[in-house]
Amino acid sequence: MKRVINYILVALISLAGLSFANNFVAAGQISSETIISAVTSNPPAQTKPVMTEPVTLDKTKTEASQAKADYIDPIIVVNRPSAYLNKRINVVARFDKFATLGLDYKPAFRSSENYISFLILRSDTTKNIPLSEMKLFMKRTDAEKFIELKEGDKVQLSGVVFSNALGDVWVDVDYLKKFE
């Protein structure tokens, strides 16, 4: 049990920084039991079918076909990053924020001059916890169209997993839509 807790805390510390994890633990906002239950509990039921296998990249997809595509829970992709490498994924999630997470990292390089990253919220909890294991990148010129997005807004995104560096999922997002 302690081993699982230590593993999760090490992952939080390495991905989000020491002060981020310390703030939650020290403030009593999250306990080890909460972390374990979030990791081991089943994700909430989805309204759309969940893909069990990745879809191969189809460059001829249009916006209309992406809107009708099957969606996958991002937690499934994060748990099996190698299975989705060079595959297209379609996700419906809650937006968290734009960030610079993962930019200019050599093994999965996306330039901070041309790209911006953003985070979505975890689907396996009702709390507002970012899914930092999934690095989502978008061209800055495209991201400027979504500056009005707020934390918790429901979005649909589609992109190709281009790397599994650090055991994480790195996605080039080429389609993003906010649900009304």
Describe the overall structure.
Helices cover 27% and strands 26% of the residues. The chain is α+β, with helices and mostly antiparallel strands and 180 residues long. It has 2 domains: 2-40, no CATH class; 55-178, OB fold (Dihydrolipoamide Acetyltransferase, E2P) (Beta Barrel). Strand 5 (154-163) and strand 6 form a beta hairpin. Helix 1 packs across helix 2.
Q: Outline of this structure?
A:
The chain is an alpha+beta fold and 180 residues long. It has helices at residues 2-16, 18-26, 32-40, 63-67, 74-79, 140-143, and strands at residues 55-56, 87-99, 115-120, 134-139, 154-163, 169-178.
The portion of residues assigned to helices is 25-40%
Q: Name the overall outline.
A: globular
Please report which band the strand proportion falls in: under 5%, 5-15%, 15-25%, 25-35%, 35-45% or over 45%: 25-35%
| Structural domains: how many | 2
Report how far the terminal alpha carbons are from each other.
42 Å
Listing every helix as H and every strand as E from the N terminus to the C terminus, the arrangement reads HHHEHHEEEHEE
Number of strands: 6
Low-confidence parts: 14-27, 34-62
Task: State the CATH superfamily name of the largest domain.
Answer: Nucleic acid-binding proteins
What is the CATH architecture annotation of the largest domain? Beta Barrel
| Major sheet characteristics | 5 strands, mixed, barrel
Report the C-alpha radius of gyration, rounded. Answer: 16 Å
Number of helices, where a helix is a run of at least 4 consecutive DSSP H or I residues = 6
Indicate the CATH class of the largest domain: Mainly Beta
Major sheet strand order: 2-3-4-6-5
- CATH-defined fold name of the largest domain: OB fold (Dihydrolipoamide Acetyltransferase, E2P)
Mean pLDDT: 77
